[in-house]
Design a protein that fits this description.
alpha/beta, 22% helix, two-stranded parallel sheet, 8 helices
Length: 315
């Protein structure tokens, strides 16, 4: 099949292997000329593929592949041979990381517009990201969702892969859209997204540490100056009961919008109000917009907080 450019295989059975032996049946109507393939989409089952034969891909999607047949050497080899790749999507993969493996030079993927690592292991995501380079202005979708960190310290992916070649992608997404937002509910989980519509810039890190992640991200966005447009933080749940977390978040100067959701009673926002009304060092000093959701207990505590915060202005 010399004209075949797209292969999409889906296995719904966990015991069925997606097995394509690209060396079989030469000269028959079923021979696949891998050099002509531009779109490969694999979903489900053990990974037993002739990876070295994939090259020149434009779209590469892999989802829920497992077993011992897939390594980072396979992934990086295909990427190296596909410099015109536009879409890279990997979801729930079981990939073996070869020790000491590193490309001598970064893999240049200057046409890449969409990159997704969804629910892959953190050490695998870090290993791949730090060895590829893309053009920030061309990236239209950047989604990283990591849950299982294994041997990589959670904050490691922030200070390693994302702080090198990919930090410029985050900066560009924030500055060319309407800012970005952190959604914080659990002190252990960091969620960040660039606002706006049409394009998707998002990452979700479990066990990374929300406060440490926000501080790192603010450093990336600001580059020594105030990030414009503003940064928004949405708080609810356990994070609002963590006094140390709220105090630390409040010390970050460039947060412009804070949105908090009241839970059960007005005391659920007491720690936040205390940070905002601190007379010596008011929390969130660049705050321009405070949004309170699900508030139904009158305005007395809100007025007291505002009076304390703005007492020097005579308000």
């Amino acid at each position: 099949m010399p004209l075949l450019q797209t292969v999409k295989l889906v296995s719904r059975r966990t015991t069925a292997a997606l097995n394509l032996n690209l060396k079989t049946s030469p000269g028959t109507p079923f021979e696949i000329h891998t050099e002509a393939l531009r779109h490969v989409d694999l979903h489900g089952g053990p990974a037993t593929w002739g990876w070295a034969h994939f090259r020149g891909l434009r779209v590469w999607r892999m989802k829920e592949l497992y077993g011992d047949g897939l390594t980072t050497q396979h992934i990086l080899g295909v990427l190296r041979e596909s410099p015109l790749l536009e879409v890279l999507e990997m979801e729930r993969l079981n990939v073996h990381i070869l020790p000491g493996e590193s490309m001598p030079t970064p893999i240049s993927l200057r046409r890449l517009t969409r990159i997704i690592f969804a629910w892959c292991k953190g050490d695998f995501v870090n290993h791949i990201l730090r060895q590829i380079q893309a053009s920030p202005e061309l990236i239209e979708e950047f989604l990283i969702a990591v849950r299982d960190w294994r041997f990589l310290e959670p904050i490691g992916i922030l200070t390693d892969a994302l702080s090198t070649s990919w930090s410029s992608v985050l900066q560009n997404a924030h500055r060319t859209r309407r800012g970005s937002r952190f959604n914080l509910s659990d002190p252990r989980i960091l969620l960040w997204t660039a606002k706006g519509s049409g394009k998707n810039f998002y990452f979700s890190f479990f066990w990374v540490g929300a406060v440490a992640g926000v501080r790192w991200m603010m450093d990336v966005l600001s580059q020594g100056d105030e990030p414009r447009p503003g940064v928004e933080i949405g708080c609810l749940g356990n994070i609002l009961q963590d006094a140390e977390a709220i105090e630390t978040l409040g010390s970050i100067k460039n947060i412009a919008i804070v949105e908090a959701r009241a839970d059960r009673n007005e005391k659920s926002l007491q720690i936040l109000f205390q940070a905002l009304s601190n007379r010596s060092t008011p929390g969130f000093p660049r705050l321009t917009n405070l949004k309170l959701q699900d508030w139904s207990w009158g305005t007395e505590s809100i007025v007291k907080m505002l009076q304390a915060r703005f007492q020097d202005n005579g308000t």
